[in-house]
Amino acid sequence: MVKRMVEDTLNTLQGCRNRV
C-alpha cells in the first residue's frame, strides 16, 4: 500500500517537472 502511494507521489512530481 505504502509503495503504491510513494509511486503515485513520484509520478505526480515527475508530471509537474515535465510540465515546467
Characterize this entry briefly.
With 20 residues, this protein is mainly α.
Give structural notes.
The protein has 20 residues and is an all-alpha fold. It is 90% helix and 0% strand. The protein has one helix and no strands. The longest helix is centred in the middle third of the chain and has 18 residues.
Layout of helices and strands:
Elements: H1 2-19
What's the story with the biggest beta sheet?
A: none
Mean pLDDT comes to: 88
Query: What structural class do the secondary elements suggest?
Result: mainly alpha
Order of helices and strands: H
What gyration radius follows from the Cα positions, in whole Å? 9 Å
Q: What portion of residues belong to β-strands?
A: under 5%
* Outline: rod-shaped
Distance between the termini: 29 Å
Give short descriptive properties of this protein:
mainly alpha; 20 residues; 1 helix; single chain
